[in-house]
């Protein structure tokens, strides 16, 4: 069944889907601003967590001086930015404040329409737990953000790269889960779709690449080597230091982390091409979007290295990562729809024979 042949969803599921798509757009902006915040080293400029009162930025000179004095107490200022002017502090404060403000907006957009749709009983059966989980995940993400910032306020001059990875991957998980739910609500009868096996493998490969991308960002590993495809004159520099125990190199060694992130991208490319080939017969636009997103992302990754971590290129690289997630989710969801359609037709074989894993509990399990 082609996209054009699919029946349109009813008004209520469509309204809920539009709300979730709006939330996805805000999360995309949030990830982009988060990238700018990290690349401008602005993340530690606000040293207190005030979810409500912190929405109002400093206005008077006395308020600005108080925030600046708090910043002067942390290692980043004392060891790196000692002597920074108040004007320079205001610049980095701006990006962190915008990042947190967007978090507040996302929290409200996740909560208020949810309450409205719940009161109006507009959320289809079996979607109540999913929409509620999205709001809870947004709340948890706010706490993870502070947990990350707190790691750089006492002994370190930056945040923990592991906590940064948790923060980024949680944001992308929320984005992907929200997008999948929105697409479910737009499908025939708003029936939840199940992830086919190829989708699980593709998501796993992509998640690993995103994890190492977060490690590269948190360790500033992009500065280790600014050449491509070789790292200096070798595939992997033989003189690079090696950490003990062995497994630490895959988390804490900037050179190893950059090496893995460079080449695992092409493993993800293989999965993207496989998905694109599978989905092309169902939807050419899904296939084209997948090719475009993964191709652009690899080029931006190489460009980020060769440009010496240019701010604009690096931010574009992080923004495109969200588009890659979106294209993977959309393509896998379209394949899941084809499988669901095939399984309802007698005597068909193909997608219906492929093992699958539910995103939602079955009706029997729910009861």
TrEMBL record:
<dbReference type="GO" id="GO:0016653">
    <property type="term" value="F:oxidoreductase activity, acting on NAD(P)H, heme protein as acceptor"/>
</dbReference>
<keyword id="KW-0812">Transmembrane</keyword>
<dbReference type="InterPro" id="IPR003780">
    <property type="entry name" value="COX15/CtaA_fam"/>
</dbReference>
<feature type="transmembrane region" description="Helical">
    <location>
        <begin position="20"/>
        <end position="39"/>
    </location>
</feature>
<feature type="transmembrane region" description="Helical">
    <location>
        <begin position="288"/>
        <end position="309"/>
    </location>
</feature>
<feature type="transmembrane region" description="Helical">
    <location>
        <begin position="259"/>
        <end position="276"/>
    </location>
</feature>
<keyword id="KW-0472">Membrane</keyword>
<comment type="pathway">
    <text>Porphyrin-containing compound metabolism; heme A biosynthesis; heme A from heme O: step 1/1.</text>
</comment>
<dbReference type="GO" id="GO:0046872">
    <property type="term" value="F:metal ion binding"/>
</dbReference>
<keyword id="KW-1133">Transmembrane helix</keyword>
<feature type="transmembrane region" description="Helical">
    <location>
        <begin position="195"/>
        <end position="217"/>
    </location>
</feature>
<keyword id="KW-0479">Metal-binding</keyword>
<feature type="transmembrane region" description="Helical">
    <location>
        <begin position="101"/>
        <end position="119"/>
    </location>
</feature>
<dbReference type="InterPro" id="IPR023754">
    <property type="entry name" value="HemeA_Synthase_type2"/>
</dbReference>
<feature type="region of interest" description="Disordered">
    <location>
        <begin position="346"/>
        <end position="367"/>
    </location>
</feature>
<comment type="similarity">
    <text>Belongs to the COX15/CtaA family. Type 2 subfamily.</text>
</comment>
<keyword id="KW-1003">Cell membrane</keyword>
<protein>
    <recommendedName>
        <fullName>Heme A synthase</fullName>
        <ecNumber>1.17.99.9</ecNumber>
    </recommendedName>
</protein>
<comment type="function">
    <text>Catalyzes the conversion of heme O to heme A by two successive hydroxylations of the methyl group at C8. The first hydroxylation forms heme I, the second hydroxylation results in an unstable dihydroxymethyl group, which spontaneously dehydrates, resulting in the formyl group of heme A.</text>
</comment>
<dbReference type="GO" id="GO:0120547">
    <property type="term" value="F:heme A synthase activity"/>
</dbReference>
<feature type="transmembrane region" description="Helical">
    <location>
        <begin position="131"/>
        <end position="149"/>
    </location>
</feature>
<feature type="transmembrane region" description="Helical">
    <location>
        <begin position="315"/>
        <end position="336"/>
    </location>
</feature>
<keyword id="KW-0560">Oxidoreductase</keyword>
<keyword id="KW-0408">Iron</keyword>
<dbReference type="GO" id="GO:0006784">
    <property type="term" value="P:heme A biosynthetic process"/>
</dbReference>
<comment type="subunit">
    <text>Interacts with CtaB.</text>
</comment>
<dbReference type="GO" id="GO:0005886">
    <property type="term" value="C:plasma membrane"/>
</dbReference>
<keyword id="KW-0350">Heme biosynthesis</keyword>
<dbReference type="Pfam" id="PF02628">
    <property type="entry name" value="COX15-CtaA"/>
</dbReference>
<feature type="binding site" description="axial binding residue">
    <location>
        <position position="317"/>
    </location>
    <ligand>
        <name>heme</name>
    </ligand>
</feature>
<feature type="binding site" description="axial binding residue">
    <location>
        <position position="261"/>
    </location>
    <ligand>
        <name>heme</name>
    </ligand>
</feature>
<feature type="transmembrane region" description="Helical">
    <location>
        <begin position="164"/>
        <end position="183"/>
    </location>
</feature>
């Amino acid at each position: 069944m082609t996209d054009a042949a699919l029946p349109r969803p009813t008004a209520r599921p469509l309204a809920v889907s539009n709300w979730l798509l709006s939330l996805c757009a805000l999360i995309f902006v949030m990830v982009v601003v988060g990238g700018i915040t990290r690349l401008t080293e602005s993340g530690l400029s606000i040293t207190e967590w005030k979810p409500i009162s912190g929405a109002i930025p400093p206005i008077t000179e006395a308020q600005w001086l108080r925030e600046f004095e708090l910043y002067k107490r942390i290692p980043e200022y004392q060891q790196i930015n000692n002597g920074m002017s108040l004007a320079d502090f205001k610049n980095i404060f701006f990006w962190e404040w915008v990042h947190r403000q967007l978090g507040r907006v996302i929290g409200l957009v996740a909560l208020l329409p949810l309450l409205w749709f719940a009161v109006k009983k507009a959320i289809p059966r079996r979607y109540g737990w999913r929409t509620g989980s999205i709001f809870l995940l947004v709340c948890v993400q706010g706490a993870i953000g502070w947990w990350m910032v707190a790691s750089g306020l006492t002994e370190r001059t930056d945040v923990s790269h592991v906590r940064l990875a948790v923060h980024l991957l949680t944001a992308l998980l929320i984005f992907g889960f929200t997008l999948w739910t929105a697409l479910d609500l737009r499908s025939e009868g708003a029936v939840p779709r199940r992830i086919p096996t190829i989708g699980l493998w593709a998501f796993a490969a992509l998640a690993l690449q995103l994890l190492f991308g977060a490690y590269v960002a948190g360790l500033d590993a992009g500065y280790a080597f600014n050449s491509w495809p070789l790292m200096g004159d070798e595939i992997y520099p033989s003189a690079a230091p090696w950490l003990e125990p062995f497994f630490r190199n895959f988390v804490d060694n900037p050179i190893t982390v950059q090496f893995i992130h460079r080449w695992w991208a092409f493993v993800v490319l293989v999965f993207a091409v496989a998905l694109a080939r599978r989905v092309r017969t169902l939807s050419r636009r899904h296939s084209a979007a997948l090719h475009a997103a993964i191709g652009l992302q690899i080029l931006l990754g190489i460009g980020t290295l060769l440009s010496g971590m240019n701010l604009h290129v690096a931010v574009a690289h992080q923004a495109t990562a969200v588009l890659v997630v979106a294209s993977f989710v959309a393509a896998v969801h379209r394949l899941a729809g084809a499988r669901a359609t095939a399984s309802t037709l007698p005597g068909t074989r193909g997608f219906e024979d492929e093992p699958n894993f539910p995103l939602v509990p079955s009706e029997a399990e729910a009861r």
